[in-house]
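Teaching assistant's notes for section 4

Start the section by putting this record on the projector. Ask students to predict, before seeing the second block, whether HU domain-containing protein will look compact or extended. Collect guesses on the board.
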Amino acid sequence: MGAKYALYENPNPKGDGKKQPLHARIVPRGTIHTQEIAEEIADSCGYSTATTKGMLDALAKVISKNLRYGYTVELDDLGSFSISLKSRPVMDKKEIRSWSVNFGNVHFKGSKKLKNRLKSIDLERDSDACATSYSPEQRKGRMLIASEEKEFFTAAQYMRLNGCNRSTAVRDLKELIEDGRIKKLGYGKAVLYVPINKQEKI
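Reveal the predicted structure now:
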């Protein structure tokens, strides 16, 4: 099974309606969570799923602990993790104190071995995916229209319909919930989103 891609039009910075160049982007299939990874490792290595998941959880804690100490954490075949900081800009170092310097973000850099493994990726064009970059309101509207024939939809379906990543989909769906246009049902991997006017049918 290979990955699918679609061609998307670059946003028009001038907003003058002129056609923009297209670029290829992966069509998200969804998200693989720790439990699925643990099950796959267990099947290939002979460990129990519970043991494997425990080791993955422990790995996450060890990475977090060492990042807090200021280390870069490198996993040989995978890549390295590091953190960045944020603070207000100053001209003189005397103008800033340690309490005003905060954690910024976690950064991951793929290893050379990981990149080499991905160079032979099998790609297939997804003819069903959209080929345009939609605005937030356009993305939301497309899903609401598509959901008229469905009782519910998922974040993965939202991602596929609009060609967006998971963080964008989750943000859009959260805004739809806050606007009272959909309702979230379930937890974890079993989350469904239901248009408000269809709740009584579920």
